[in-house]
């Protein structure tokens, strides 16, 4: 189950963060998202030959904790998409599909002529679309 999704700007400024849990967990999830940004920077600035190439946007699992796993996706403009999930066994193909849909929703939201680049995304249509994507992702297990 997806607990939280986030969009973080190229200067690590939060553009959008939505929790799908009770308010008590929201602060903990924000902290987990913030901690995973260091891992994103490390992977982008120190690419390994066996790791993702510069053209690879899916960063894979970034930050596992006892109860959560954080997955990352990086756009060509260095905008980061993060997903915090409680699922222990998630297929990379399913996560890639989720991020492609999430990225498409983001592109539609920032293509709005009234959106100011680099500012928080406040569109209700974007929030509803993200909620729909999260609901369609549902609990995924390997099989």
TrEMBL record:
InterPro entries: Longin-like_dom_sf, Sedlin, TRAPPC2L. Pfam families: Sedlin_N. GO terms for biological process: endoplasmic reticulum to Golgi vesicle-mediated transport. One of its GO terms (cellular component) is cytoplasm. It comes from the Eukaryota. CDD domains: TRAPPC2L. Belongs to the TRAPP small subunits family. Sedlin subfamily. This is Trafficking protein particle complex subunit 2-like protein. It comes from Musa troglodytarum.
């Amino acid at each position: 189950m997806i607990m939280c999704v986030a969009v973080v700007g190229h200067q690590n400024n939060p553009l959008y963060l939505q929790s799908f849990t009770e308010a008590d967990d929201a602060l903990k999830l924000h902290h987990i998202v913030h901690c995973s940004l260091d891992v994103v920077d490390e992977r982008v600035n120190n690419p390994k030959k066996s790791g993702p190439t510069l053209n690879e946007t899916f960063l894979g699992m970034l930050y596992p904790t006892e109860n959560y796993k954080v997955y990352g996706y990086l756009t060509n403009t260095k905008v980061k998409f993060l997903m915090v999930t409680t699922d222990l066994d998630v297929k990379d193909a399913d996560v890639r599909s989720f991020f492609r849909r999430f990225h498409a929703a983001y592109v539609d939201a920032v293509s709005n002529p009234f959106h100011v680049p680099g500012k928080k995304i406040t569109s209700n249509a974007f929030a509803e679309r993200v909620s729909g994507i999260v609901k369609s992702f549902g609990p995924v297990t390997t099989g």
